[in-house]
Automatic annotation (TrEMBL):
Swiss-Prot/TrEMBL keywords: Transit peptide
Lineage, highest ranks first: Bacteria, Bacillati, Bacillota, Negativicutes, Selenomonadales
Protein name as annotated: Staygreen protein
Domain (Staygreen protein): residue spans on this chain: 4-148
Length: 156
């Protein structure tokens, strides 16, 4: 069990992003350092592909609009790392365990945006587990963003 310390989160708002807008396109790239435990969140119009490492342990997320004032957050994780099925199974478990922390980091890191957009608190969260193995390739509903609003201050 780990506790997310928001002082270990570095946030980078890239050009075109403010605390109020845009909702779309607004994309999140969450990476971390294995050595320090530091989390790095980039909020941008495009994914921060320059921050993605060969280990592919990042969480990518974006807002989608399904109609007037009907938004969803879609997050993507790469379950396989071209290391075989056994490694994919371990990565799958790792992502399941760490996703609440990752979603809390997104909420915390972009908290001024969420403060200015309270309608997004009830936005559904969909996680897309990407894998070449059918048992790990799936889409799951993970509740609403409000459920992760305080996850950065409680045990995960």
């Amino acid at each position: 069990m780990s506790i997310f310390d928001k002082t270990n989160l570095s946030v980078n708002l890239r050009p075109g992003i403010t605390a109020c807008q845009p909702i779309i396109p607004r994309r999140y790239t969450l990476t971390h350092s294995d050595q320090t435990g530091q989390l790095f969140l980039s909020v941008a119009l495009q994914y921060a592909t320059d921050e993605i490492t060969p280990s592919r342990d990042e969480v990518l997320a974006e807002w989608r609009c399904l109609g007037p004032r009907n938004f969803q957050l879609h997050a993507y994780v790469c379950v396989d790392n071209h290391s075989g099925k056994k490694e994919a199974a371990l990565r799958n478990k790792h992502f399941i365990r760490r996703l609440p922390l990752a979603l809390g980091a997104i909420f915390c890191g972009d908290r001024y945006f969420f403060y200015n957009r309270p309608e997004l608190h009830m936005a559904p969260v969909w996680i897309h587990f990407q894998s070449c193995y059918p048992e790990f390739c799936r889409d799951e509903y993970w509740g609403v963003m409000a459920e992760y609003a305080n996850s950065y201050s409680r045990k995960i």
